[in-house]
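3.2 Worked example (two chains)
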Amino acid sequence: MKAQIKKFDEIGIKDVAMVGGKNASLGEMYNQLTSKGVRIPNGFATTSFAFWEFLKENEIQTRIENVLTQLDREAYSNLEEIGKKARKLILGATFSTVFSEEIFNAYSILCGEDLKEVAVRSSATAEDLPEASFAGQHDTYLNIKGKEALLEAVKNCFASLYTNRAIKYREDKGFKHDTIALSVGVQIMVRSDKGCSGVGFTIDPESGFENIMLLSGIWGLGENIVQGVVTPDEFYVFKPSLAQGKYPIVQKNLGDKKLTMVYADKKENTSIVNIKTQKDKQRAFVLSNYEVIALAKWAIIIERHYQKPMDIEWAKDGITNELFIIQARPETVHNIRNKNIFMEYKLLKKGKVLSQGNAVGSKITHGTARLLDSPKNVGHLSPDTIIVTDTVTPDWDPLLKQVAGIVTNKGGRTSHAAIVARELGVPAIVGCADATTTIKENETITVSCAEGKTGYIYQGECAFTKIEIDFSNIKMPATEVKMILADPDNAYQLAGYPNNGVGLLRMEFIITHKVKVHPMALVKFDKLKEETVKKEIEKITEAYPDKEDYFVDKLSQGIATIAAAFYPKEVIVRLSDFKTNEYANLIGGEDFEPIEENPMLGFRGASRYYNDLYKEGFALECKAIKQVRDEMGLTNLKVMVPFCRTVEEGKKVLAVMEENGLKRGSHALEVYTMIEIPSNVILAEKFSGIFDGFSIGSNDLTQLTLGIDRDSELMMDLFDENNEAPKQMIKMAILAAKKTNTTIGLCGQAPSDYPEFASFLVKEGIDSISFNPDALLQGIENINKAENIGE
């Protein structure tokens, strides 16, 4: 007789047909990876044979099949009724004495004399195939103790093969119902109710970028993260830094974690309950850096073992403080995607922002908002319906395939709503907080996931374009093509475009949007004049006892994200180049910035870095860059000094950088300068003696050559990068760079807007041209044409 129970040490990945994908994977990892340090809770599984025998002994298999033949496969109008009938047949059946005893014996062997709590998990025999995740389709029961409770949980798992969502999922995926059995895994319980839990993807779940993994976590049981009830902490880990033994966490985001799911008292009618998370725990990350790195190492071991990107679940026992991997399945979205084909969405106009949250995917859609409390009694949904709700659980899955978009108040990037939306290719924005109050029933809205990690819901129908790009057909020119970037949220996606690196990383965007506070307001916090400003900074930096660490942390994470996305290609970060009026707009900035008549030509660029008014703020910039290069190992990062008026000034800046641990030449550090002032061109050969490379800033060079304020509307008609005078300046700079064997590039819009300008640069022998992402492909085309003409 075939086995009805298999211990984890008796099964492996080859046994999917016997114990389902989830249990086969757990057995595989328990047997193959525990010796490599990956901690898997021990357990056993019921087999598919046991499931078929159960149906056969109770004579219900044919009856279930007959029930399913009555399913309305057009509108699925009777899905709930059919599911209920099928589940009732299983729940009304009985286990044989032999099967019951085998389960109890395995339970006794697993736990010893003390019958510990166990987790009871469903595992379908077609589960976790590369083309289907089966995420959340079948039930799990936690904190089960005792023979009768265990047998009841096993039967409930059997019945969950016919939940409404599981039936609909199989219909959508083309699985035949009568060929799929249900195996049940029984594992030693990890007491994450007293600790924390979470999920992880060994690639970036939005872009599919393979060098980054995302781990997320919450306090208590993991159901809150799956259902998207709370916003989790997020940890982005850079795999090459991990492999080099460097600090690999390039980004950390603190979630709200407002609720903690724990086991209920036995007096209550429920097994689990959500309680409010203590304020100090909300403000603390659920994992230490050491624990994040430990989990990341395990995730790499798992990914290498399976030789494919993986979606894992982890838990930390709050009693023993031990970490465990409790599940691993293949990642299902990017595994099957053609990486050369990219669909580019662009918003042509924006309406009033109604809400915003975490963008899932990169699509744009518009349609009619339907505000729903639950998936029951929804009525008619059309292909242009956008569901707006508090949170999405697996019960919603049958509806999600029918709609244009999904918007939720709660949830993070690893919530069930996000996972299913990616798999279905439906644009979704999760974790909006206020969507159900700011969006009205039947209102026309536009859901945009094409603007980075933050997704926006706009009022009305906003026009957008959709273009399919096949990168495999794009020929890269001999002249290097680089990007101009500012927003780290777009980096992983844009790294997939054809490029030779980043020629200009604008630090100002990161300071404005991620840091928000003037660095000197952090250095001299106690001397701030306005009490309201002090309170605002206190709130923003509450997780940081040392306020200067806040600046360094946020800036380094923003820079590191872009440097990691393009690694090992070079990324050139420009030191902060705000003008005084722009610095003053930062929180606390007014106390530290002089008022100037013409900030464009005033206290900006290099002149700030060695001046006592900003020197301590500049030290924080240097510290952030040093952290990215030295601690994270992202030595592809180079530094660029803007608006350096004289050679002497350049030497002063290099000296201050060295004082702050950034010595030119040390650890292969290269320092560039911008060519944007006529003095830079005239003395280019001397500047090349102290800098490793040049980048021509064509906008500033044009305005300072022609004597035109490029921000003046009155003078707009005279501002022209194609004018002979700035072009002569560019020509002179390139000639000087060639003479001194100094790398030289150009950052600007003109080479994409004007083919003749690109042709001019190629003819003069420019080494690289950097473009904004939306102009990159046109720029490549212009350069290719210019190079072909010159052949």
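3.2.1 Second chain
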Amino acid sequence: MAEFVRWFSDLTIEDVPLVGGKNASLGEMYRELTPLGVKQANGFAVTAEGYRAALDAAGAWEKLHRELDGLDKSDVRALHKAGQSCREIVYAAGLTPQVRDEILEAMEKLYDEYGNDISVAVRSSATAEDLPTASFAGQHDTYLNIAGNEMVLDAVTRCNASLFTDRAISYRIDKGFDHFKVYLSACVMKMIRSDLASSGVMFTVDTESGHPDFVFITSAFGLGENVVQGAVDVDEFLVHKPRFRDGFRAVTRRVLGAKQMKMVYAAGRTREPIVNKPTSAEEQAAFSITDDQALVLADYAIKIEDHYSRHRGHTTPMDIEWALDGKDNELYIVQARPETVTSQADANVMEEYVVTGKGETRVTGRAVGTKCALGKVRVIRSTEQLSEFKPGEVLVSDTTTPDWEPVMKTAAAIVTNRGGRTCHAAIVARELGIPAVVGAEGATATLKDGETVTISCAEGDVGRVYAGEVPFETRRTDLATLKKPKTHIMVNLGNPELALKTSFLPVDGVGLARLEFIINEYIKAHPMALLHPDKVEDREHRAAIDKMVQGHANGGDFFVQRLSEGVGTIAAAFWPRPVIARLSDFKSNEYAQLIGGAPFEPKEENPMIGFRGAARYTHPSFEEAFVLECRAMARVRDEMGLTNLKLMIPFCRRVDEADRVIEFMGKHGLERGKNGLEIYVMCEIPNNVIAIDEFAKRFDGFSIGSNDLTQLTLGVDRDSQIVAFDFDERDPGVMAFLKQAVDGAKRNGRHVGICGQAPSDYPEMARYLVDCGIDSISLTPDSVLKTLQMVAEMGG
């Protein structure tokens, strides 16, 4: 057996001291997971003993000590000089003759397995990396498309030298590792031809919220270095693990990235074996993998997480790199390591950052983390400028690289022009616990050195850079100390981007998920305009519709996919807690404002009590659109398997209207009672209260809408500023209706809750409803904790 080379089949996760974390993990997966269908190319590791042997033979240790002993890493110039000298020392040491011979012998076996024309990837694996509390991700070098034995030997030597990159030296000092007790093991494995297809990174936990129930996949065309480095805005996919395990194969949510360029093999023999090329307009408009491929990756990710969790004795979220081979169209795992940020968070402590003021938005991008920060801008365009950076400033750049990490560690926040949620800047920001806004196009041109900005990653997936000081608060709550009331406390939520984060609130589910927000933000077009674009005369609107439906069979499919993914994200985030989705309740004037909406909407004097809610669903002018809503909700329940989704009918004026809607829904895949489907009705019209016994025969529950119930009880148009002063949910007449509604629902054995604004605004209203015996109170997220504590204290 070779002394300095180990094949993947000879390695296990216990071999970190011998071959480092990355190689030990590759060996473990090759041995244990390949039989389970997780594909991985073969390869071998040059052991840490081979690295040590080279430095011993060259007498390099003393020289390295001279460079590193007493080094002040905060001195960027000194760090750079020391790192450069150390790399030169290790590279000059080269490889011992025996190590060279064993590598060449191993290469012959790789040629026998895959053919003489293959190229390989040569990666670095340090003996202290991929630990649960220290990832070392990106600290050392990787070389791709290496062909020919001499290039392989040179790449192994360069990997050895990369143990002393500036960022690796700095990282070891921060983590308390001895430079001379960490060794390098190079990995040589067959290249996956993702230059002809796609590649990316995935996590078995949502990277921003820390939600453990999702596989989060990023993808772009070409080799994976662009994804890791954040050089492109990636495609994103979410897959819900619990229902995937139960056999439901569906992508929960997808986000299309710009994918501005792709890394491919260089033509012919050049000094640079890989190059970047711009992607075509067609590539940018298309997802870089299919839904089916995303599901294969999710299967791989779950199997990898399960295996490592069994080995460690506890759930171990994983950070995994993958590649799609353009020749055999198979998906391969390139490496896997424990995720080291969200897995270390204290699950019992909820930290909320809340923006309490307003300001001009300078740029937006993808939010990394959920924090806010304040600082002065420092635009860095090249490594030479890093010495100008001052601690506490906001680092603004095109992208970041691992060489920048010593400076990044002193930043208040990071903003980049390019990158997705798994790019280098995002990974480092997460590990440092600072906010970052990545993929903020034009940030380096818009933001100026010295200007004060507020960074907000506390408002969903979109990260914002505000001009000046915008006030924000930090709220910390120890969830272990909260007493749970008997009354169910639920949350109102419309924005899928906030769902995963909001799900950590100690609530019993979602009492109101508004479809209007999803339609307005993620679809933007009137459903009838999507179904009949030929009736849209406005040229700009017609062009916008044509663009948005690209990649879909028709406008209807686009609507169904977007709506189902929005609602599905909310239902998955709270699984298995109930999520009550209220079907669309736009008024005619609001629908007319959607793209292409004007030709399909009547002009009404008072839309607030006009063509809205249940009245639309079976009306000839709208029923085609309602079919799309039914299809979308059926997809969430049947294809995604999210049967915790309940549906709610808004503004249902009369009992016969309820009968028509329920019958219509049943014909279009939403039969009440089938597969446990419950259908609720909004109790927001006086007739809903007066005729509650009849409505109770048709619906499984009631949700009181205090806004509309108040305006219809008091005769106040809440859209009219002139009489707005008379709108008060605490009026005795309204309060009487609230009690009648609770009593009537209970008399009929039906669930009754409230999802209106009143309990969020008025604590006394919440107390009154608890005294009435209401089953649940649904609140805005910012009101949950204080109301929950209040209800618990009053014994409700």
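3.3 Remarks
Residues 130-136 have pLDDT under 50 and may be disordered.
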